[in-house]
């Protein structure tokens, strides 16, 4: 068995996202999932960057106690087309409408991450990635709605799924940010926290 990366840290992932857990596990971190149910509402006057940061921080506030060397990671991702924030769709009809809005256009994906170490150190980061979609055929949208998993993703799509292979022409910025976790930024913060432990 491989030695864990940053073995002093015990990562608590405050998210139900299997993609975030998979990314942290692939990094070789000790990860356990402990997702709290938090209502994802926010003040309407916030900018996209402020929305994701507000929601990631709101999720972090649900956790009150930390064990030795526990590091809590909470996160939120949104898709923004023009000035419209696209969160997770309500149902398949809503998902189809979102995919039509994203078709043949560019949009931005914002992910915020809050990292709270031992209840003492709190760091946050927001990362933006620009994604360009080709013009989607109705048959492609229908196929993804029937065979993919659009309901648990901001903007109704997963770049790592079939629709990402078919729809995404190019991205500007972090691929992993679109998946749901800006890995390079997270690793940098975790390394700094790890280095602060005696």
From TrEMBL:
Its EC number is 3.6.1.9. One of its GO terms (cellular component) is cytoplasm. It catalyses: dTTP + H2O = dTMP + diphosphate + H(+); UTP + H2O = UMP + diphosphate + H(+). It is found in: Cytoplasm. It comes from the Bacteria. Its cofactor is a divalent metal cation. One of its GO terms (molecular function) is UTP diphosphatase activity. Coiled coil: none annotated. SUPFAM superfamilies: ITPase-like (SSF52972). Its main location: cytoplasm. The record marks 19, 77, 160 as: Important for substrate specificity. The keyword Hydrolase applies. InterPro entries: ITPase-like_fam (IPR029001), Maf-like (IPR003697). The active site is at 76 (proton acceptor). The keyword Chaperone does not apply. NCBIfam families: maf. PANTHER family: BIFUNCTIONAL DTTP/UTP PYROPHOSPHATASE/METHYLTRANSFERASE PROTEIN-RELATED (PTHR43213), BIFUNCTIONAL DTTP_UTP PYROPHOSPHATASE_METHYLTRANSFERASE PROTEIN-RELATED (PTHR43213:SF5). HAMAP family: Maf. This is dTTP/UTP pyrophosphatase.
């Amino acid at each position: 068995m491989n030695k864990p990366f940053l073995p002093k840290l015990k990562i608590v992932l405050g998210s139900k996202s299997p993609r975030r857990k998979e990314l942290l596990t692939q990094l070789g971190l000790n990860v356990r999932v402990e997702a709290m149910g938090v209502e994802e509402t926010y003040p309407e006057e916030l900018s996209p960057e402020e929305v994701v940061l507000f929601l990631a921080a709101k999720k972090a506030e649900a956790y009150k106690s930390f064990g030795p060397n526990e590091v809590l990671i909470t996160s939120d991702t949104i898709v923004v087309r023009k000035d419209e924030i696209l969160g997770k769709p309500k149902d398949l009809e809503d998902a189809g409408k979102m995919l039509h809005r994203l078709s043949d256009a560019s949009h931005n994906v914002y992910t915020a991450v809050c990292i709270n170490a031992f209840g003492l150190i709190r760091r946050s980061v927001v990362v933006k990635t620009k994604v360009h979609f080709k013009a989607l055929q109705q048959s492609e949208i229908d196929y993804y709605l029937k065979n993919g998993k659009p309901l648990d993703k901001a903007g109704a799509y997963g770049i790592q799924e079939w629709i990402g292979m078919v729809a995404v022409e190019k991205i500007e910025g972090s691929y992993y940010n679109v998946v749901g976790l800006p890995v390079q930024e997270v690793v940098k913060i975790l390394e700094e926290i790890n280095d602060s432990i005696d």
